[in-house]
Amino acid sequence: MEYKAFTMERTGVFRPDYKIMEGDTLVYQVEKTKLFKHVYAFHDAQGNNLYTITKTRPSKFVFEITRHGEVAGAVSKGFFSSTIDIEGKSGRYTVVSSLLQKTFTIQDSHGTEVGKISRRMKGFRNRYGVALENREDMEYLLCLPVIIDAILRIQSST
Q1: How many domains does the chain divide into?
Q2: Which entry of 33, 68, 111, 112 is 20 to 30 Å from 12 by CA?
Q3: CB under 8 Å to 88, separation ≥6 — which residues?
Q4: DSSP-based three-state secondary structure for 75
Q5: Contacts of residue 10, Cβ cutoff 8 Å, sequence gap at least 6
Q6: How confident is the model over 66-118, as pLDDT tens digits?
Q7: Alpha-carbon span 26 to 104, nearest angstrom
């Protein structure tokens, strides 16, 4: 299996934005578009909007990924669960978290590992390493570390 490696760094404290790099090259940017709501715009390096990520249920960890106004996927996590479920046009995936929520394994609907996400704290910022199989929809799956970071920030504030 051939993997592509990315790093994602959160910038900002109250209004987090993200830079996604492949090596030293900026390939994607994600910005939080609403101050008190979890709505994120996922752009390529040229600023073209690729996806919008929205937390849709205030009391639960349910997110929607849209592309050009159409729902591309739904992401959900139970409050005490260590797994995140993703279902959409690109397929069905499950993200399994380690006990300390430092590493996350992405599995397809057959249980085959298609990617890994690792989290490292750096001051108030989280930095993520992401490795995805070349055959997967990378832009779609790169929405996951943003959602994971949002979930972890919500959990730490409750």
Answers
A1: 1
A2: 68
A3: 65, 71, 72, 73, 74, 140
A4: strand
A5: 16, 17, 18, 125, 126, 127, 149
A6: 999 999 999 998 877 889 999 998 889 999 988 777 899 999 999 999 999 99
A7: 23
Q: Which residues of 63-77 are buried (b: 16+ CB within 10 A; e: fewer)?
A: bbbebeeeebbebbb
Tokens of 87: 């279902």
Using CB atoms within 10 A of its CB, is residue 39 exposed (0-12), middle (13-18) or buried (19+)?
A: middle
pLDDT value of residue 112 = 93
Domain that holds residue 100: 3-157
Write out pLDDT tens, residues 29-41.
999 988 778 899 9
**Residue with structure tokens 């940017």?**
29
